[in-house]
Structure formats: structure tokens, C-alpha cells
Amino acid sequence: MKISIAALSLALIVAGCSSDPAPTSSDVVAFLEANTQGADQAKISLDACHLKITFESDVKGPNALALLSRAVLMADLSKFDFQTVGIRPLQDGGSVLIAKWLGTADDPIALASRLLDLSTRTHKDFQPGELTLKASDGSVSEEKRMTTSDLQGADAQDLAGLFQKPGGTVSFRLSSLMTGDANGVTQTPAPHEDGPAFHAFAENALTLEKPEALLVNLTFLGDTAAPDQLFGGLVTIPRQLTFSVGSDEKAKELTGLFYHYVQGSCGP
């Protein structure tokens, strides 16, 4: 991630301001509701330093395929760095605020261990393998697919080594393949056979009490969130938080709001 000069100079400004009263949780929620993209379809809450955003939206896939997308983000804001952030411009004139995991914060090893335990209760054995992904911006990431026995054998030291790698985290994905016919027309997909099991795992993950960082994203065929209609899913521990707002100035304003809120409300 590139750190912009604007973001760095903002960090110096907000760190030096102490005369204004610290923002309240209501201030932060109100700003997010008024300025973040898709906020009209989201439910946002902030309890002390624990942010929760729940999003649900009807979307259209290929050939006007009806899909229902549900996402839940939970994060302890004190674990993320709002003093030095990234601000990336969007093609529509908006900007994305990027706050990385705080270097001095403990890695979420206990959370990862709980997720691994939950996964082994609901999933059948996985096929091992490695996957290299290349994003449109040229960045490359590598993923190692683990079997159930691998997951059961992972200990705290293994997880610590994983989190120490750049961008290292634990993710669980359910992916469905959409195929085309001889004319290249995308065929209507079927729900994933492992959908109910993955849905149960995702719901169990959402019951964890105030996790340091957790993102659950589920996509269903049709317009109802039925476990047997699950088409794709993701459960992961995000190593950075991203917020899409309308402009570079709004991204700076949100950075300052988060920074001062954490300083005033997330202390020991």
C-alpha cells in the first residue's frame, strides 16, 4: 500500500490537535451513515471501540441473475492505525480510506484458532493445494489451501508465523463456478453442495464476542438468505479496514474522526 502525502500530513495534524472535544460514537456512526458508499443499505453501530457494519443488497449477476449479498464487518478500532493511513482515489471521484493493522497490536491468534476450530466442526475434508492470484493493479498474492488435518494440527506458533507475513491471515472461501454453453451464454448456476455447512460455519463465526476483526460475506441465489441457496462465501480476519467515501477531503475527515475517537474512547 502506498502512503499518500495527504494522509501523512493529516496524521501530523490530527495528532497535534487536542483542544477539541473527542468525538462520540454517535458522531462516528452519523458520519459513516452520511458519507460512506452503500450506507443506505447498511446498519452501523459502534459500542465503545467495537465497530459493526451489516450490509444487505439485491444484486444482479450475469444474464440478470438475481443474487442476494449479505456482509458483516466487525472490528476493534484500537487494533488499526488511523495515524498513518492510505487514501486511494476512485474513478468516480471518490476515495478509499485504508487503515492497516496497528504494528504494535497483538496479532489475532486466539481469534484465528477459534475460527479453525469452528471450521473443523462443519466442513468435510478439503483438497490441499496452492493458488497464486494476480490483481488488476499488478499485485500478487499466494494462498495455501489446507486440509482439515492441517487445520487441526495448527498451533499458536504456526498462526503467529502466518500473521507475521505481509498480508498474512486466515480466510475461508466457498466458491462456485459459472459455466457457459456452446454459444458463450452463462448458464444458471446451482447452489453449492457445501452451502449449508459453510453457512452454519459463518453463522457460528458471527456469534464470537467482539472479535478483533472479522468479515463475513455471503452470496445467495435468489432473494432470500436460505442456507441451501448459498452460492459463494467468505469468512476472514481482515488485516486492513477500507471505507469508500465521496472525496479525498471526506477521507481525511473520516481519518481524523477515527483517530480522535480511538484516542478518547479506546484507552486502557
Q: Explain this structure to me?
A:
Helices cover 30% and strands 28% of the residues. The protein has 268 residues and is of the alpha+beta class. The protein has one domain (5-265). Strand 2 and strand 3 (66-76) form a beta hairpin. It is globular, with a radius of gyration of 20 Å. The two termini are 29 Å apart.
Give the strand order of the largest sheet, numbering strands 1, 2, ... along the chain. 1-2-3-9-10-8
C-alpha geometry: globular
Strand content: 25-35%
Contiguous helical run count: 7
Share of helix, binned: 25-40%
Low confidence ranges: 1-17
Count of strand segments: 11
Largest sheet: 6 strands, antiparallel
Rounded mean pLDDT score:
80
Task: Describe this protein with a few key phrases.
7 helices, 6-stranded antiparallel sheet, 11 strands, alpha+beta
Question: Topology, please?
Answer:
Blueprint: H1 5-16, H2 25-35, E1 42-47, E2 50-60, E3 66-76, E4 86-89, E5 95-100, H3 109-122, E6 129-134, E7 140-145, H4 148-153, H5 156-163, E8 171-174, H6 195-206, E9 213-221, E10 230-236, E11 240-245, H7 248-265
Antiparallel strand pairs: 1-2, 2-3, 3-9, 4-5, 5-11, 6-7, 8-10, 9-10
Give a quick summary of the entry:
By secondary structure, this protein is α+β, with helices and mostly antiparallel strands.
